[in-house]
Amino acid sequence: MNRLLMVTAVDAEADAVRAGWTAAGVTVAAVGVGPAAAAAGTARLLAYAEAEGQPYTAVISAGIGGGFPGRAPVGATVVATASVAADLGAESPTGFLPLDELGFGATVATADPTLVAWLRAALPQALTGAVLTVSTVTGTAERARHLADRHPDALAEAMEGYGVACAAAGAGVPFAELRTISNPVGPRDRAAWRIGDALAALTTAARALSSAGSPAASCPAG
What we know:
It is built from seven helices and ten strands. The chain has helices at 11-20, 35-51, 99-102, 113-122, 141-150, 161-171, 195-212; strands at residues 4-8, 26-30, 58-67, 77-85, 89-92, 95-98, 108-110, 127-133, 154-158, 175-184. Residues 217-222 have low confidence and may be disordered. The strands form two sheets. Strands 3-9-8-4-10 form a five-stranded mixed beta barrel, surrounded by four helices. Strands 5-6 form a two-stranded antiparallel ribbon. β5 (89-92) and β6 form a beta hairpin. With 222 residues, it is α/β, with parallel strands linked by helices. It has a single domain (4-218), classed as Nucleoside phosphorylase domain (Rossmann fold). It starts with a strand and ends in a 10-residue tail after the last helix. Helix content is 36%, strand content 28%. The longest helix has 18 residues, at 195-212.
């Protein structure tokens, strides 16, 4: 049986996905904010499903996020080609050193190409590029510039994708990330955020994906 797991950070995002999804074969769950909570919550769901003999065959990290100005405007939908742990590493006199350069692991989790193709086919207006995973939401123009310069392919930032990707990799399950944009990455201005619009866009995306049918048949686990 093909089973898709869609995880969000908070209940409002999960409710937005459920509001649009009408097909069978999907579980939607809020697993917490930040990469650690997302990894732990996703791993728990995957382990339980496997123990019950009904493993998930694909995992999608879904929710709202910030878009880099000039790359992903507010209201846009973004399909991630990769989820990048953008602040996992070390500071140095010459600048930030990612985990890769320190020799302690990889900071880039590449999305499953079959899942990405399915998302893009169902969401033809979506933008495609990297999504950064951060533990601290960007709140200054300077940090936004640094992130944009270090990651020229990044369209958006959020807080869970890389954690979900790590859990999926540990379980041998294909992974992807989907974001709708609620605010620009940069100076923190809550008055300019469009969370309601981004949640509505998430519902619209979920409805389109539900109509497209499950991707799990072409994305076997392992």
